[in-house]
Fold this protein.
Amino acid sequence: MRNDFLPMPALVEDVIVETPTIRTFVLQLAEPMPFRAGQFVQLFLPGVGEAPFTPSSSPSEPGRIEVTVLAAGRVTAALHELAAGAEVGVRGPFGRGYPLHELEGHEVVVVGGGVGLAPLRSLLYTLFERPGFARRVSIKYGARAPQELCFRSQYADWAARPDVDVTTTIDRPSAGWNGRVGLVTTLLDGVDVDVRDACAVSCGPEIMLKFVARKLVDVGFRAEHVFLSMNRNMSCGMGICGRCNVGSRYLCKDGPDLSYAEVQAVPYALG
Ligand SMILES: Cc1cc2nc3c(=O)[nH]c(=O)nc-3n(C[C@H](O)[C@H](O)[C@H](O)COP(=O)(O)OP(=O)(O)OC[C@H]3O[C@@H](n4cnc5c(N)ncnc54)[C@H](O)[C@@H]3O)c2cc1C
Ligand code: FES
């Protein structure tokens, strides 16, 4: 029987430098690990520790997953030191994954901030692989500065797909940047979808989620149609340690994505 506490060995096949602070690790797993977009894994570095990440690759490749990591502290800094050929451990997948059944047949607005586009990329691949599943996919993405836009080389390909559009913004003006300037919430002003029927999925820093969710509801989205990746600190990943609760829910089991309606039902869940 599988022991969910035991990491599976994985080989770092490639390391892709996405931005000065974000790298994608392409991992060849000892055995395929079937996962759904939005489910997360615990990445284990011997002698350092482990941390949760949501694969940024397509679930259609369960033996070779990509994890896109912002250098934030101890484990992530050590991960950024790794080169191709290194070995890591992987546990999972954990969580429910994105609520695909809720998105089917709707226009879907995908709102990312910084490294938050990484988990969302797995969702995008899933939607792209099922033409017609979502009526339309509208990607709104913000980063602090142009050099911090993740997966920048892919936007044109995504936008070239039928019924997909991509709009990006950076927080402050920057030399050489001719695109939009302002927080990602500014991309939601006059959003061009049927807001009463559309769904939105957002991933990014918690402060961003709070303002994105409020804005979406302000412009007419239903709180039950807004899904937020509550990527809080986690430990066991299995509903045992109690580290990740929001009210009576364990994000590692019942999340990490919760609807804004569920989040609003818990006082101060989003600060
Ligand atoms: C389900 C889930 C999915 C995630 N997916 C990704 C991903 O795809 N890519 C990615 O880069 N990161 C992701 N994260 C965040 C990532 O797990 C943390 O950045 C990581 O645990 C930090 O570990 P560390 O040892 O490097 O930092 P630490 O030394 O533990 O902490 C460094 C700083 O970051 C803060 N911090 C630690 N964890 C988090 C967190 N979860 N949220 C906010 N602040 C935190 C600490 O409070 C501290 O200030 C995800 C988190 C969760 C829970
Ligand atoms: S991480 Fe242990 S209960 Fe959720």
In short: The chain has seven helices and 15 strands.
